[in-house]
Write a structure and sequence with these properties.
This protein is α/β, with parallel strands linked by helices and 283 residues long. The protein is 43% helix and 8% strand. It is built from 13 helices and five strands. A five-stranded mixed β-sheet has the order 2-1-3-5-4, with helices on both faces. Strand 4 and strand 5 (246-251) form a beta hairpin. Helix 4 (76-91) packs parallel to helix 9. It is globular.
Length: 283
């Protein structure tokens, strides 16, 4: 039984959420001839004896052999039309608890159906620093908390190095649900969550934003450059709702630093710049 449960968990992590047949097929075995609507009632032997036409060289193999299509942005036009109405509704919400409650009732992002938990964010309601990452990972999805895996532990140590404890900052992501298999989110999934994140920032009104990773930086700043160009440069982000422009700084994602330790020097410079700004802006 445990074997089957682990298999089902692996399927879910890989994004398999739909059965394409009533039983499993061995795709490596010889193909079995199955009747099509055109030859229903005819002997299978007769159908098998006719040579099938060769596949067109211009047809990519994935078009016929892949049982699960890649994720597509669903209803982009409808989502664009709903954005202003949703933003107006969220503007009336004044507390994080109220925003969380509305997010739990939101069904405009398909990621919610495959995730274990909603990772809303955590920290003081009026933190001076807000950190924004890209999306929850496996451990974050399991616990319903942001940055609790290995990259979160590194982030905690980096914050401690500039005199900040995790409980002093607010940590969130551009997505509230884990993409299956940690795949790259689609633009529609990001845009579906963005009105909630903008309102979240407006409610907290931090003195500064720290965007970790290229995906978060490009989403928040609406830029196409990679993190190598965006990091270390101060800019401003206006979430709307009367919050006004907020100084923002981009840096490397802790997960990237775990894979590329040589870049920790540059990330350290970014954290020192954030420390200097927070000290200078202290009341």
């Amino acid at each position: 039984m445990n074997h089957w449960l682990e298999t089902l968990r692996w399927y879910a992590d890989m994004g398999v959420d739909e059965a394409v047949a009533d039983r499993a097929w061995n795709r490596f075995a010889e193909p079995e001839v199955r009747p099509s609507p055109a030859n229903q009632g005819r002997p299978l032997l007769a159908a098998a004896s006719r040579p099938s036409p060769p596949a067109s060289p211009s047809t990519p193999p994935s078009a016929t052999t892949s049982p699960v299509p890649p994720p597509r942005d669903a209803r982009p036009a409808q989502m664009d039309a709903l954005q202003p109405a949703l933003a107006a509704e969220l503007a009336a919400i004044e507390t994080l608890d109220g925003l969380r409650d509305r997010l739990e009732r939101f069904d405009g992002c398909a990621l919610k159906t495959t995730a274990t938990n909603t990772v809303f964010g955590e920290g003081p309601a009026h933190a001076r620093l807000m950190i924004i990452g890209e999306a929850p990972g496996e451990e974050e999805d399991r616990q319903g908390r942001p940055f609790v895996g290995p990259s979160g532990q590194l982030l905690d140590r980096m914050l401690a190095a500039i005199g900040l404890e995790r409980g002093e900052v607010y940590i969130a992501n551009t997505l509230y649900w884990r993409p299956p298999g940690n795949r790259t989110p689609t633009p529609a999934e990001v845009q579906a969550c963005l009105p909630f994140l903008r309102r979240q920032i407006a409610i907290i009104r931090p003195q500064a934003l720290l965007m970790v990773g290229g995906a978060a930086a490009k989403t928040m700043l609406e830029r196409k450059e990679g993190i190598m160009r965006l990091r270390g440069r101060w800019t401003e982000y206006d979430p709307g709702g009367g919050a006004g422009p907020i100084p923002a700084l981009a840096t490397f994602h802790p997960a990237y630093l775990l894979r590329s330790p040589a870049q920790k020097r540059e990330a350290w410079r970014d954290f020192l710049a954030m420390q200097a700004y927070l000290l200078a802006s202290r009341d």
